[in-house]
Write a structure and sequence with these properties.
4 helices, five-stranded mixed β-sheet
Length: 105
């Protein structure tokens, strides 16, 4: 299950992680966000131990969203060694995420 991150714990969980992290920036009211939510959950199970999968609600954590320039949701950022390694904006098939993840691990 994907962890929830917010303005208060983002750096500790994401930036300082010793494994790659994907961050799903989403909001409750966002239809495309709900479309990719099951994919994000599947990835969290399939890559368990190799990749940390987290979700960040842009409405309750505007600081993190602003810091990373999140203007459209869903946006998924792929972090490696505390830095953004890749990005995916919009609802896309699972295969798009898998390709990007496999490049990180």
């Amino acid at each position: 299950m994907a962890l929830e991150v917010n303005d208060g714990n983002f750096d500790e969980i994401v930036v300082k992680s010793n494994i790659p992290v994907i961050v799903d920036f989403w909001a409750e009211w966002c239809g495309p966000c709900r479309m990719i939510a099951p994919i994000v959950e599947e990835l969290s199970q399939e890559y368990s131990g190799k990749v940390l999968v987290v979700k960040c609600d842009v409405d309750s954590s505007p600081g993190v969203a602003s810091r990373y320039g999140i203007r459209n949701i869903p946006t998924v950022l792929f972090f490696k060694e505390g830095k953004i390694a890749d990005k995916q904006v919009g609802a896309v098939p699972k295969s798009n995420f898998v390709t990007k993840l496999n490049a990180l691990v």
